[in-house]
Amino acid sequence: MKKADKSNAAIIVCMVIAIVSLIAGMTIIFVQKNEMKKNPDTSVKNIVIQVFAPEHDKKTYKVKTEKQYLGEVLIDEKIAEGENGQYGLYIKTVAGIKADESKSEWWCITKDGEAVATGADAVKIADGDNFELELKTGY
Description:
Blueprint: H1 3-37, E1 45-52, E2 59-65, H2 70-76, E3 80-85, E4 88-94, E5 97-98, E6 105-111, E7 114-115, E8 130-137
Parallel strand pairs: 1-8
Antiparallel strand pairs: 1-2, 3-4, 4-5, 6-7, 6-8
């Protein structure tokens, strides 16, 4: 084989490798974009929120939402009212029941009966989640 033929063969091999790499890269990008569209964080989620307060009947809200965080759902669905504090949403009223700060009342958030370690704004939701908001007395 002549030197020119070897050189042409090397160029062809390099071009084939470049084309295959380009196709592989485009395929990866296409797959990633499709996976992002299927991201469960932006899909519709069905959650249940139960409200417990002394001297009040239990209230249950079944919510269908695309929101990602509990705080957004509570405000958008008008289940709770509050104000933004240094730790996010400070819940003052739930289902029309206002916490009386003079009695050291506050709203406790639990998920499946377990206390959450963050404020409502930081509680990520997933399809099928069950949350409870309970009016507590004493800090």
